[in-house]
Design a protein that fits this description.
The chain is of the alpha/beta class and 282 residues long. It has two domains: 2-173, Rossmann fold, CATH 3.40.50.620; 186-277, Pantoate--beta-alanine Ligase, Chain: A,domain 2. The protein has nine helices and nine strands. Helix 3 (75-85) links the parallel strand 3 and strand 4 (89-91). The chain is globular, with a radius of gyration of 19 Å. It starts with a strand and ends with a strand. The structure holds adenosine monophosphate.
Protein backbone atom coordinates (compact mmCIF):
# COMPACT_ATOMS: atom_id res chain seq x y z
CA UNK A 1 0.00 0.00 0.00
CA UNK A 2 1.27 3.44 -0.89
CA UNK A 3 0.67 6.34 1.47
CA UNK A 4 0.73 9.97 0.42
CA UNK A 5 0.25 13.20 2.27
CA UNK A 6 1.05 15.66 -0.51
CA UNK A 7 -1.54 16.66 -3.07
CA UNK A 8 1.06 16.66 -5.85
CA UNK A 9 1.95 13.03 -5.16
CA UNK A 10 -1.71 12.04 -5.19
CA UNK A 11 -2.23 13.77 -8.52
CA UNK A 12 0.73 12.04 -10.14
CA UNK A 13 -0.41 8.64 -8.81
CA UNK A 14 -3.86 9.36 -10.28
CA UNK A 15 -2.39 10.40 -13.63
CA UNK A 16 -0.54 7.11 -13.80
CA UNK A 17 -3.69 5.10 -13.12
CA UNK A 18 -5.43 6.92 -15.95
CA UNK A 19 -2.54 6.28 -18.33
CA UNK A 20 -2.68 2.61 -17.47
CA UNK A 21 -6.46 2.51 -17.94
CA UNK A 22 -7.29 1.54 -14.35
CA UNK A 23 -10.59 2.30 -12.70
CA UNK A 24 -10.20 3.97 -9.32
CA UNK A 25 -12.57 3.43 -6.39
CA UNK A 26 -12.62 5.84 -3.47
CA UNK A 27 -13.60 5.53 0.19
CA UNK A 28 -13.41 8.80 2.14
CA UNK A 29 -13.17 8.43 5.93
CA UNK A 30 -12.20 10.29 9.07
CA UNK A 31 -10.15 7.31 10.26
CA UNK A 32 -10.60 5.39 13.51
CA UNK A 33 -11.42 2.60 11.10
CA UNK A 34 -13.83 -0.20 11.87
CA UNK A 35 -15.48 -2.99 9.92
CA UNK A 36 -18.03 -0.54 8.47
CA UNK A 37 -15.29 1.42 6.73
CA UNK A 38 -13.57 -1.77 5.61
CA UNK A 39 -16.79 -3.11 4.08
CA UNK A 40 -16.78 0.03 1.91
CA UNK A 41 -13.27 -0.89 0.79
CA UNK A 42 -14.51 -4.36 -0.20
CA UNK A 43 -17.27 -2.78 -2.26
CA UNK A 44 -14.87 -0.32 -3.91
CA UNK A 45 -12.51 -3.16 -4.74
CA UNK A 46 -15.32 -5.14 -6.39
CA UNK A 47 -16.10 -2.16 -8.61
CA UNK A 48 -12.63 -0.90 -9.54
CA UNK A 49 -8.98 -1.81 -10.16
CA UNK A 50 -7.40 0.37 -7.50
CA UNK A 51 -8.81 1.59 -4.19
CA UNK A 52 -7.99 4.93 -2.59
CA UNK A 53 -8.94 5.58 1.01
CA UNK A 54 -8.61 9.01 2.55
CA UNK A 55 -8.21 9.55 6.27
CA UNK A 56 -8.91 13.16 7.17
CA UNK A 57 -10.67 14.56 10.22
CA UNK A 58 -12.32 17.51 8.53
CA UNK A 59 -12.46 20.53 10.84
CA UNK A 60 -15.06 22.24 8.63
CA UNK A 61 -17.76 19.74 9.48
CA UNK A 62 -17.46 20.07 13.26
CA UNK A 63 -19.37 22.77 15.13
CA UNK A 64 -17.79 24.86 17.91
CA UNK A 65 -18.96 22.64 20.80
CA UNK A 66 -18.34 19.35 18.99
CA UNK A 67 -15.65 16.69 19.32
CA UNK A 68 -13.10 17.75 16.67
CA UNK A 69 -10.16 17.84 19.06
CA UNK A 70 -11.03 14.62 20.87
CA UNK A 71 -12.23 12.70 17.79
CA UNK A 72 -10.37 9.33 17.89
CA UNK A 73 -7.20 9.36 15.78
CA UNK A 74 -4.87 6.39 15.33
CA UNK A 75 -3.08 6.45 12.01
CA UNK A 76 -0.82 3.48 12.78
CA UNK A 77 -3.82 1.26 13.40
CA UNK A 78 -5.73 2.68 10.41
CA UNK A 79 -2.73 2.12 8.14
CA UNK A 80 -2.46 -1.55 9.18
CA UNK A 81 -6.20 -2.18 8.75
CA UNK A 82 -6.33 -0.43 5.37
CA UNK A 83 -3.32 -2.29 4.05
CA UNK A 84 -4.65 -5.60 5.31
CA UNK A 85 -7.96 -4.97 3.54
CA UNK A 86 -6.27 -4.21 0.22
CA UNK A 87 -6.33 -0.42 0.00
CA UNK A 88 -3.85 0.57 -2.72
CA UNK A 89 -3.36 4.19 -1.79
CA UNK A 90 -3.91 5.81 1.59
CA UNK A 91 -4.32 9.58 1.28
CA UNK A 92 -3.69 11.41 4.56
CA UNK A 93 -3.63 15.12 3.82
CA UNK A 94 -2.92 17.68 6.53
CA UNK A 95 -5.45 20.35 7.42
CA UNK A 96 -3.01 22.96 6.02
CA UNK A 97 -2.81 21.13 2.69
CA UNK A 98 -6.59 20.97 2.22
CA UNK A 99 -7.33 24.39 3.69
CA UNK A 100 -4.32 26.60 3.13
CA UNK A 101 -4.28 30.13 4.47
CA UNK A 102 -6.97 32.13 2.69
CA UNK A 103 -9.15 29.16 1.63
CA UNK A 104 -12.64 30.58 1.80
CA UNK A 105 -14.94 28.78 -0.64
CA UNK A 106 -17.74 26.48 0.51
CA UNK A 107 -20.14 24.14 -1.20
CA UNK A 108 -23.57 25.31 -0.06
CA UNK A 109 -26.06 22.44 0.20
CA UNK A 110 -29.75 22.86 -0.61
CA UNK A 111 -32.58 22.90 1.92
CA UNK A 112 -32.37 19.15 2.52
CA UNK A 113 -29.35 20.02 4.65
CA UNK A 114 -31.42 22.19 6.98
CA UNK A 115 -33.37 19.27 8.40
CA UNK A 116 -32.46 16.53 10.92
CA UNK A 117 -28.70 16.41 11.34
CA UNK A 118 -28.39 19.85 9.77
CA UNK A 119 -30.90 21.35 12.22
CA UNK A 120 -28.87 20.07 15.16
CA UNK A 121 -25.43 20.65 13.60
CA UNK A 122 -25.43 24.06 11.89
CA UNK A 123 -22.97 24.20 8.99
CA UNK A 124 -22.14 20.51 9.24
CA UNK A 125 -23.19 19.57 5.72
CA UNK A 126 -21.54 22.58 4.07
CA UNK A 127 -18.36 21.30 5.71
CA UNK A 128 -18.99 17.75 4.53
CA UNK A 129 -19.82 18.73 0.94
CA UNK A 130 -16.86 21.09 0.72
CA UNK A 131 -14.37 18.42 1.73
CA UNK A 132 -16.05 15.73 -0.37
CA UNK A 133 -15.99 18.00 -3.44
CA UNK A 134 -12.30 18.70 -2.85
CA UNK A 135 -11.51 15.02 -2.39
CA UNK A 136 -13.47 14.12 -5.54
CA UNK A 137 -11.49 16.73 -7.49
CA UNK A 138 -8.20 15.42 -6.11
CA UNK A 139 -8.81 11.67 -6.34
CA UNK A 140 -11.03 11.83 -9.46
CA UNK A 141 -12.60 8.46 -8.66
CA UNK A 142 -14.64 6.43 -11.11
CA UNK A 143 -16.62 5.07 -8.16
CA UNK A 144 -17.05 6.50 -4.65
CA UNK A 145 -18.49 4.35 -1.87
CA UNK A 146 -20.37 5.81 1.12
CA UNK A 147 -22.21 4.16 4.00
CA UNK A 148 -25.98 4.13 4.50
CA UNK A 149 -25.18 4.75 8.18
CA UNK A 150 -24.92 8.48 7.42
CA UNK A 151 -28.00 8.56 5.25
CA UNK A 152 -28.51 12.32 5.11
CA UNK A 153 -24.85 12.74 4.21
CA UNK A 154 -25.03 10.32 1.31
CA UNK A 155 -28.32 11.84 0.14
CA UNK A 156 -26.69 15.27 0.03
CA UNK A 157 -23.53 13.93 -1.63
CA UNK A 158 -25.72 12.31 -4.30
CA UNK A 159 -27.49 15.64 -4.82
CA UNK A 160 -24.12 17.39 -5.15
CA UNK A 161 -22.79 14.80 -7.61
CA UNK A 162 -25.89 15.27 -9.76
CA UNK A 163 -26.17 19.04 -9.38
CA UNK A 164 -22.48 19.80 -9.93
CA UNK A 165 -21.88 17.10 -12.57
CA UNK A 166 -19.15 15.11 -10.89
CA UNK A 167 -18.24 12.36 -13.38
CA UNK A 168 -18.41 9.42 -11.00
CA UNK A 169 -20.70 6.67 -9.80
CA UNK A 170 -21.87 6.94 -6.20
CA UNK A 171 -22.47 3.65 -4.41
CA UNK A 172 -24.16 3.24 -1.02
CA UNK A 173 -23.18 0.27 1.14
CA UNK A 174 -25.35 -1.13 3.95
CA UNK A 175 -24.67 -0.38 7.60
CA UNK A 176 -22.38 -2.83 9.34
CA UNK A 177 -23.48 -3.69 12.90
CA UNK A 178 -22.16 -5.47 15.93
CA UNK A 179 -23.88 -8.84 16.46
CA UNK A 180 -26.28 -7.26 18.98
CA UNK A 181 -27.39 -4.67 16.41
CA UNK A 182 -25.41 -1.58 17.40
CA UNK A 183 -24.30 0.23 14.23
CA UNK A 184 -20.52 0.46 14.11
CA UNK A 185 -19.25 4.00 14.56
CA UNK A 186 -15.90 5.56 15.36
CA UNK A 187 -17.72 7.34 18.19
CA UNK A 188 -18.68 4.03 19.86
CA UNK A 189 -15.29 4.15 21.61
CA UNK A 190 -16.77 6.93 23.75
CA UNK A 191 -19.36 4.50 25.18
CA UNK A 192 -18.71 2.77 28.50
CA UNK A 193 -20.62 -0.53 28.98
CA UNK A 194 -23.75 1.03 30.56
CA UNK A 195 -23.90 3.67 27.82
CA UNK A 196 -23.41 1.05 25.17
CA UNK A 197 -26.33 -0.92 26.60
CA UNK A 198 -28.49 2.22 26.29
CA UNK A 199 -27.25 2.85 22.74
CA UNK A 200 -28.80 -0.47 21.69
CA UNK A 201 -32.17 1.26 21.93
CA UNK A 202 -31.58 2.81 18.50
CA UNK A 203 -31.29 -0.45 16.56
CA UNK A 204 -34.04 -2.04 18.68
CA UNK A 205 -36.39 0.82 17.84
CA UNK A 206 -35.55 0.53 14.14
CA UNK A 207 -36.17 -3.22 14.26
CA UNK A 208 -39.58 -2.56 15.83
CA UNK A 209 -40.37 -0.08 13.05
CA UNK A 210 -39.37 -2.64 10.42
CA UNK A 211 -41.55 -5.24 12.08
CA UNK A 212 -44.53 -2.87 12.32
CA UNK A 213 -44.17 -2.00 8.64
CA UNK A 214 -43.88 -5.69 7.71
CA UNK A 215 -47.11 -6.24 9.69
CA UNK A 216 -48.86 -3.64 7.53
CA UNK A 217 -48.49 -0.41 9.51
CA UNK A 218 -48.33 2.54 7.09
CA UNK A 219 -49.26 5.41 9.40
CA UNK A 220 -46.14 7.41 10.31
CA UNK A 221 -47.60 8.60 13.64
CA UNK A 222 -48.35 5.00 14.64
CA UNK A 223 -44.84 3.96 13.59
CA UNK A 224 -43.36 6.79 15.63
CA UNK A 225 -45.43 5.61 18.58
CA UNK A 226 -43.91 2.13 18.27
CA UNK A 227 -40.45 3.65 18.15
CA UNK A 228 -41.07 5.84 21.20
CA UNK A 229 -42.38 2.84 23.13
CA UNK A 230 -39.11 0.98 22.53
CA UNK A 231 -36.98 4.05 23.29
CA UNK A 232 -38.83 4.47 26.60
CA UNK A 233 -37.15 1.23 27.68
CA UNK A 234 -33.75 2.92 27.25
CA UNK A 235 -34.03 5.96 29.54
CA UNK A 236 -30.36 6.85 29.15
CA UNK A 237 -30.97 7.54 25.47
CA UNK A 238 -32.18 11.09 24.78
CA UNK A 239 -33.69 11.26 21.27
CA UNK A 240 -32.87 14.29 19.11
CA UNK A 241 -35.29 13.30 16.36
CA UNK A 242 -37.36 10.45 14.99
CA UNK A 243 -37.57 11.04 11.23
CA UNK A 244 -39.93 9.06 9.01
CA UNK A 245 -39.01 10.50 5.65
CA UNK A 246 -38.82 10.10 1.89
CA UNK A 247 -35.46 9.12 0.39
CA UNK A 248 -35.05 12.12 -1.95
CA UNK A 249 -35.84 15.27 0.03
CA UNK A 250 -35.87 13.68 3.49
CA UNK A 251 -39.24 15.24 4.26
CA UNK A 252 -41.71 13.68 6.69
CA UNK A 253 -44.04 11.36 4.79
CA UNK A 254 -47.83 11.28 5.03
CA UNK A 255 -47.90 7.53 4.40
CA UNK A 256 -45.16 4.97 4.81
CA UNK A 257 -44.22 3.04 1.65
CA UNK A 258 -41.36 0.68 0.76
CA UNK A 259 -38.23 2.86 0.60
CA UNK A 260 -39.39 5.22 3.36
CA UNK A 261 -36.48 5.94 5.69
CA UNK A 262 -36.65 5.85 9.46
CA UNK A 263 -33.72 7.85 10.84
CA UNK A 264 -32.95 8.32 14.52
CA UNK A 265 -30.50 10.46 16.43
CA UNK A 266 -30.02 10.36 20.16
CA UNK A 267 -27.56 11.25 22.85
CA UNK A 268 -26.15 8.95 25.48
CA UNK A 269 -24.40 11.22 27.92
CA UNK A 270 -22.15 13.43 25.79
CA UNK A 271 -22.12 11.03 22.84
CA UNK A 272 -24.39 11.59 19.88
CA UNK A 273 -25.38 8.55 17.85
CA UNK A 274 -27.35 8.12 14.63
CA UNK A 275 -28.87 5.12 12.91
CA UNK A 276 -31.46 4.46 10.22
CA UNK A 277 -33.24 1.85 8.19
CA UNK A 278 -34.90 1.80 4.78
CA UNK A 279 -38.28 0.18 5.23
CA UNK A 280 -39.03 -2.81 3.03
CA UNK A 281 -35.39 -3.14 1.99
CA UNK A 282 -34.71 -6.38 3.89
P1 LIG B 1 -16.61 8.48 8.87
O1 LIG B 1 -15.21 8.02 9.04
O2 LIG B 1 -17.45 8.34 10.08
O3 LIG B 1 -16.69 9.85 8.23
O4 LIG B 1 -17.27 7.49 7.82
C1 LIG B 1 -16.67 7.26 6.57
C2 LIG B 1 -17.61 6.45 5.73
O5 LIG B 1 -17.89 5.21 6.39
C3 LIG B 1 -18.96 7.13 5.51
O6 LIG B 1 -19.39 6.88 4.16
C4 LIG B 1 -19.85 6.42 6.49
O7 LIG B 1 -21.22 6.42 6.13
C5 LIG B 1 -19.28 5.02 6.46
N1 LIG B 1 -19.64 4.26 7.66
C6 LIG B 1 -19.51 4.66 8.94
N2 LIG B 1 -19.99 3.71 9.77
C7 LIG B 1 -20.45 2.70 8.99
C8 LIG B 1 -21.07 1.44 9.25
N3 LIG B 1 -21.33 1.02 10.49
N4 LIG B 1 -21.40 0.67 8.18
C9 LIG B 1 -21.15 1.09 6.92
N5 LIG B 1 -20.56 2.25 6.61
C10 LIG B 1 -20.22 3.06 7.63
Amino acid sequence: MAEVEAIGQLRSWRRQQREEGRRVGFVPTMGALHEGHLALVDRARDLSDRVVMSVFVNPLQFGPGEDFTRYPRNLDRDRALAEDRGVDLLFVPTVEALYPEGADTRVVPGTTADRWEGAVRAGHFAGVLTVVAKLFNLVQPDVAVFGQKDIQQVTLVRRMVDDLDFPLRLVVAPTVRDPDGLALSSRNVYLDPPSRAQALGLSRALAAAEQAFADGETNPAALEGRIRAILAGFPGLKPDYIAIIDPERLEAVAAVVPGTIVALAARVGATRLIDNTILGAH
